[in-house]
Amino acid sequence: ANGKQNLETGEFDPQSLKLVELINYDPKFDADYLSSLISKAKKSWSGVHADDWLSELRGGYEA
């Protein structure tokens, strides 16, 4: 969709929205590809404690 957005608030003007294109969504699950990504991520994130990282990212906000 295309439309106008307020630069200060980030809000979209719903009256200005126009549909650009409909696309067919055909998700394909590839277990091998996902496993390879997880393997790479494990190496990169090995020293990071996920709960602490997420808490810091949220700014101390508890869901």
Notable features of this structure?
mainly alpha
Give an account of the 3D structure.
The protein has 63 residues and is mostly helical. The protein contains two helices and no strands. The longest helix has 14 residues, at 31-44. It starts with 30 loop residues before the first helix and ends in a 5-residue tail after the last helix. The mean pLDDT is 89.
User: What's the mean pLDDT score?
Assistant: 89
Strand segment count: 0
Derived structural class:
mainly alpha
Radius of gyration: 20 Å
Q: Helical proportion? A: 25-40%
Question: Any low-confidence stretches, pLDDT <50, length ≥5?
Answer: none
Q: How many angstroms does the end-to-end distance come to?
A: 31 Å
Please give the count of helices.
Answer: 2
Which range does the strand content fall in? under 5%
Largest sheet: none
Shape: flat
- The succession of helices and strands, N to C, reads HH
Which helices and strands occur, and which strands form pairs?
Blueprint: H1 31-44, H2 50-58
Compact description:
With 63 residues, the chain is an all-alpha fold. Helix content is 37%, strand content 0%. The protein has helices spanning 31-44, 50-58.
